[in-house]
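Supplementary Methods S3. Complex input for the iron/sulfur cluster-bound model.
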Amino acid sequence: MVMYNAPLAYPADFDGWRKAARLALELGVEPEGIGFTAGEEAPGLFAEPLPDAAPPGARQPTVPKAFPDLARRIVCHADADRFVFAYRLLFRLQTEKTLLEIASDPDVIRAGEMEKAVRRDSHKMKAFVRFREVEDAEIGRHFVAWFEPFHHVVELTAPFFARRFAGMVWTILTPERSVHWNGEELAFLPGATRDMAPVGDDMEALWLTYYASIFNPARLKVKAMQAEMPKKYWANMPETALIKPLVAGAEAATRRMLETGPTLPSLRHDKQEERRVMNLPRMEKTPDLAGAGAAEERPSSIAEAREQAAHCRACPLWEPATQTVFGKGPDDAPVIFVGEQPGDQEDIAGEPFIGPAGKVFDQALAAAGVDRAQAYVTNAVKHFKFEPRGKRRIHAKPNMGEIKVCRWWLDLERDLVRPKLIVALGATAAQAVLGKTVTIRDTRSRLIDLDERTKLLVTVHPSYILRLPDAVSKERETRAFEADMALVLETVPELAAAA
Ligand code: URA
Ligand code: SF4
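Predicted complex, serialized as structure tokens:
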């Protein structure tokens, strides 16, 4: 028997395979009589190329409608014999027309498994590719990503990225094949190495936002998601830091998604329409007449409040921010800690005090023996206010108007939680709680009666300690902050952490 070899252009060259397979079929070549080589693999020792054309009058191969799509995915599989296997199916289909319907046939079973594996790998590429912006004098803004697929899915998946990021110039590098989009067409290039991809966190924030927006909480299955994300991806993915908060916020996000549709949130909402739909007052003009949420029914639980606050548009801070960062903790906690406003990381994760300031806070609580899990932690202002500087987002102080408008939420949290003690972390928090400007120096470290039930303790903001330039004052202020946390525990002994 003559052994043929058909050279293919690249590891998932479906068109090349189809052409060669059709010719081989017309020549009557059996599956055992042909090999396909793509890339580096050496052709069989005695193999010879297929002739240029089939003999005249050869029978035209026929296939069921479903076969081309199936074969297109099979040839993307990592198995070395994928092309021969696809040919074997094609060959059998010529005499066994209903083969694909025979679910118990070993070839059909294998085909199904291969197709599924390729689909999953392609899906992972869509979900986990993360671009970084690189400087490029020639083409301007250029976004580059590194990804390591298990199967040969670059060609199969590239059109998705071309549609999704049509307006960007981007390149996805993989060990085997790379793909470049110049804004008009796709070009496939040789493989690359990881060190050719940029490192750094320039695009991280943007990407996390994107990830959060494609994440579909309506179809959330945590187990399945974890199965979808092998360790290999987790290692490389700050996005995974988002999973927990995303799961936690799934319900609210589902509702939001039903309202907005499953697309990237546009920064240019139609404000008029938004107001009509949300039935919110024109807060920018009349911040004193009504607070945030004034037009909605007053929530009767923290859960309801959190859900309503997720839609709050009462001041302009909501627009550039990722999400509302509402308070977190038991809704009957004996203590509420109030910060200023969420920072960059809090904005992305949707939880208060989880970034650098949160670490300082946690350390002081631990030093004093306070269990944070038993406290309710929130901020005076619930949206991250920042100024873009290059690609970074720099914290900006909320102004009086914003603090005033957002105070509606803080007051609501106070009413619902009804704590014994409120701890104001920093001057902004103290101002929001007291409704007037105060200094830390005048108010710090003593218990102030707010009403017959609730006391206030004012202390510094943990970021203040972070910003201190020298180790000596840092040490001193850390101790003073810890002492304030000890006073918290003394006032509310229920907060004691288990030994
Ligand atoms: N700073 C704050 O005031 N609040 C946070 O949640 C994080 C940093
Ligand atoms: Fe509403 Fe407060 Fe956000 Fe302003 S900062 S939009 S008042 S939640």
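The two ends are 80 Å apart (CA to CA). Confidence is low (pLDDT under 50) at residues 201-226, 228-246, 253-291.
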